[in-house]
Each structure stands twice: as C-alpha cells, then as structure tokens.
Amino acid sequence: MAGITELTAHLPTVLVLAGHDPTGGAGLVADSEAVAACGGWALTLPTALTVQNCRDVTAVTSVAADDLRAMAAALEEFEIAAIKIGLIPDGAVLDAVVDILRRRPGVPVVMDPVLRAGGGSDLSTAELIDAICRHLLPCVDILTPNRQELARLAGAEFADDTERAVRLMSLGCQALLVTGTDYPAARVPSDRVEHTLHAPQTSRQWSWPRLAGRFHGSGCTLASALAARLAAGESLVRACEQAQAFTWQALSRGWQPGHDQRLPRRLWQLPARPAFLATDAAAPRQ
User: Fold this and answer.
1) Which residue in 93, 94, 153, 159 has a CA-CA distance of 20 to 30 Å to 20?
2) How many angstroms from the chain centroid is the CA of residue 179?
3) Who's near 3: CB < 8 A, 6+ residues apart?
4) Between 91-102 and 65-73, two packed helices, what is the crossing angle to 10 degrees?
5) Inter-residue contact 180 to 209 (CB < 8 Å)
6) Closest to 114 in 3D by CA, of 103, 93, 102
7) pLDDT tens per residue, range 42-97
8) What is the pTM of this model?
C-alpha cells in the first residue's frame, strides 16, 4: 500500500468545470477519462446537466451558481495544477466560474468554448458570448476553438483566422490552439486536418490525417488532455503536441453505438477485460 500512496500523492490534479453528457462521449466523463489517460487526476464540477445522445443535444439545465461555488470551495485541500473549462450555459454560471478562477491565481487555464452541439443545436447566445469574451477570456491561458467557434467569438468583422486569434488575444486570452476538424482552410488538402497554435512569441502548425466519420467529444478530449499535460509541467508547445497525438489516437479507435457520431476511446491502453487477480488461487478466502 505504501507504493500506491506514493504514486497517487504526486498525480497532477486538474479542476474541470463542464457539462455532464450521459453518453460519456463528451462532457465531464470525457474530461475525466482524458485527464486520467494523460497521467492526471480530475476534480469535476458540473456546470450543467444535458439531455443528449450521439445525435444532438435536446435540453440543457444549468447548475445553480451557488452550488458550483460551494463544490469548488470544498476542494480547497487539493493543489490544483491546471483548470479546464467547457460548457458555460448562462451568465450566472459564468460569474461563478470567474469567481472560482480568481481563487486559483497562477494556475494555467484551458478553455474549450462549447458554443454548439455536434448535431448543430446552439448552446450559447450572442449576449453570453460577449460576456465570455469580456469576463472569462482574460482569465484563460489557452483557448481551443474550432474555426467556426473562433469566427463566432471574434466577430464577423475579422477576415481570417490570424486576425481573429489576434483579436481574442487582445481581450486577454494568452494563446489559442485553433483546430481545423470542423472544416478545412482552403489551402489544406481535404484528407488532412491542420491545427494552429497562436501565441505572442510562437506560431506553430500541425497536420494530421483526416479521419472518416463524425465524432462526439473530440474538443473535450483535446482540451482536457492539454490541461493534463500542462499540469504535469510540460511547455505549451509540447503539451499541444502531446494532446493532439492523444486525441487523434482516441478518435482513430472510436466506436459507433448507432448510426450517428462516433465516440472516442480515450482509455484504449487498457485491455478490454483487465484481470485484477493473476489466478483464482490469489482470490481472498471467504
């Protein structure tokens, strides 16, 4: 038992504030799996309960803001090494999230801006997006939008991704990892996906083979993996590289329970049926 205690005492801890998805493809379950698979420990605070399947989201119920604050306060004993933010369902939850972040100064914050469900349902409003840009982005170290989310956050007056990224950084966000999975830029081959890191001193691009099909929870997976790698002390570029590689592997092994979006297998390293006892003889005696 001493060995187990020694190992768990040093797990990088990631505080996750996100919605709950009952499919496990996205939301807090996805976040927890990604953090664990990348060597961390997830502390989960639900911002909303959702009614959804692998096709679309049909309802979102916000968690009471005071309950969210109370859950966060109960975790004061943990030394949090990174924070990941997902779905922000309304202004009250937004205010609570900002309050929670201000109680953890200096902790790297990763935000996956969940503005629309994979099936197309809108999960935000123009007013809420404006409030997120004004109040939450100044607290964010790295934002992980897809190209559509980037355009929606920055506003229609900006012509390309670089201008949009610069706009969001001018609002206080420190860096962006913009993903091209939703639709490729004109110069990117149709069989590739390009992700771009925008930061004050760094600009990097990565190209990955485009996987067939549609996926549920890819953004949650990437952002939580990135948070876990930052929590472990990796540099921003290295953490971005590792999070992308992990996400691509999880998506490439994804499974399809029905005829709609595929679900990432974030724990593919585990055997299908792990044996916890080597032999029957090792089982406890009754």
Assistant:
1) 153
2) 12
3) none
4) 20
5) no
6) 93
7) 999 999 999 998 888 889 999 999 999 999 999 999 999 999 999 999 999 999 99
8) 0.91
